[in-house]
Amino acid sequence: xxxxxxxxxxxxxxxxxxxxxxxxxxxxxxxxxxxxxxxxxxxxxxxxxxxxxxxxxxxxxxxxxxxxxxxxxxxxxxxxxxxxxxxxxxxxxxxxxxxxxxxxxxxxxxxxxxxxxxxxxxxxxxxxxxxxxxxxxxxxxxxxxxxxxxxxxxxxxxxxxxxxxxxxxxxxxxxxxxxxxxxxxxxxxxxxxxxxxxxxxxxxxxxxxxxxxxxxxxxxxxxxxxxxxxxxxxxxxxxxxxxxxxxxxxxxxxxxxxxxxxxxxxxxxxxxxxxxxxxxxxxxxxxxxxxxxxxxxxxxxxxxxxxxxxxxxxxxxxxxxxxxxxxxxxxxxxxxxxxxxxxxxxxxxxxxxxxxxxxxxxxxxxxxxxxxxxxxxxxxxxxxxxxxxxxxxxxxxxxxxxxxxxxx
Length: 408
What we know:
- The structure is a single chain.
- The chain has helices at about 70, 95-100, 100-105, 115-145, 160-165, 250-260, 275-290, 305-310, 320, 335-340, and strands at about 5, 35, 50, 55-60, 85-90, 115, 150-155, 170, 175-180, 185-190, 195-205, 205-210, 235, 270, 300, 350, 360, 370-375, 385, 395.
- It contains ten helices and 20 strands.
- With about 400 residues, the chain is an alpha/beta fold.
- Residues about 1-25, about 315-365 and about 370-408 have low confidence and may be disordered.
- Helix 4 (about 115-145) runs antiparallel to helix 8.
- The radius of gyration is 22 Å and the shape is globular.
- Strand 4, helix 1 (about 70) and strand 5 (about 85-90) form a beta-alpha-beta unit.
- The strands form six sheets. A six-stranded mixed β-sheet has the order 2-3-4-5-6-8.
């Protein structure tokens, strides 16, 4: 019997799509109904269903992440029949908001997936990486025999992802768009990551605002989110709702870099591949220009982060800047100089490491590295690495592990 890999339960023989409402109902609810299908009792797995009359629209479709009891939910039957959905609205490209999209498509969803243009570009990177991890885990489970399922199967495949990407239908910010009968949406900047949006959804005259993940007011690249529109209901995601963020302290990072480089060491900075790596590179550039850290080679040990950097450094039109997605102070549509040094673009003199990665300098000596990572749908061991002056790889030191770090 075929069954999914890792934490997933065995699928019954001849299992089809999860049970749900019959496709093409004669009529739905006369008043709008909002159902929480995820991110309830936890902060991952965001998924909300809006229903009115014959319209059914899903807002986000994220993977559960964290402890195994949460990750196992990813393998449970979907609580809705994807065939009955008219559209999916996406707030941003993080996996806990978009990671279940390929499964929806795999099980019959054929409608549009609406999001911002930048989110569409980042979703392609994130979902392809997710499928690669899932297929890699399934392959390893079958080769090593540790899974109780024969054969072990991934939650979804790269082919499922490619079909999903063809259904992406980007929308511009600050304009009203009809996405289903009696359902319209307007995207507002959320200031979380590039392309993130707060969704103002109009359902037959009732307005429901989905905040998505909100950014801080002081994001170095993105404008802060505007006040929400007047709404009948506000769905506010509060991952950090009970915390007060400390004031920025750039001197701490600068001091650590100076001390480490001064004694011939290597600075390893773990960072998420999307948004965090870009912000780390921007801060390194700022510190370098201010003379607070020495100018040394910087390496981004993550193809995924380099792909995301390409999206962040893409052309930025005047319309994009005025709509608040980028460019409040620094962002002008081109990568910071230090990012360009890290991006290993064609034409640069570069040395190659034993693993086939190009390093951005032939200078001898120790060098700081940004060990970018992505949050996997299942826990994976740390594979962060340090580049030495001999261009060899060493495992990260004990105690530096992170359950959701990956640098390949």
